[in-house]
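Fold it.
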Amino acid sequence: MIHVHAFCFGFFDENTYVLWDETNEAVVIDPGNSSTEEHLVLKNFIESKNLKLKRLLLTHAHIDHISGNRFVFDEWKLLPEVHKNDLTYIERHKEISLMYNLPYEESPLPENFLVEGEKIKFGNSELEMIFTPGHSPGSITFYNKEQKFIIAGDVLFYGSIGRTDLPGGNYQDLINSIKLNLFPLGDEVKVYNGHGEPTTIGFERKNNPFLI
């Protein structure tokens, strides 16, 4: 069974996730930790659970979702794994941080890129990668079929959707990603998103003003 723990980190109140199962093998998704205090919160949690961190996964590579990449690499020697279409945001991490006047620890570059349908394994568990562009050109969602949940990054929120006015965003691509790639997963699927509280696909199908 996969356990999911969320942290709210950074200047943008971003949700960082640690997932693990009965083997104590774990993955971290979208590390938004951006200060010494937040680095310690993440490290202390992982150590207190005796977790063996195996992979660093990104739903996308906007600044608020990658600010902890350097810390994760320094502590656990893990390089980020992301869709190739979002590589430019990692390459421009320093430039973008300075533009927002934010402190930064420059992210290491990925060596492996995630592809549509890829199965991401840790312990006895796996996540399926679903390509869901629109918020960014390389936005992806991680899906666990057995427990019926997704880690959706900034694709789908409680009562809202990801913004598409940032460079590389595309509104129609985002709507198509949600309706064609996420809605068919089923109404009972829980949505862990990049900001705010979780929701379900069924709730958003019926109530989200952008999707009705």
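The chain has one domain: 3-207.
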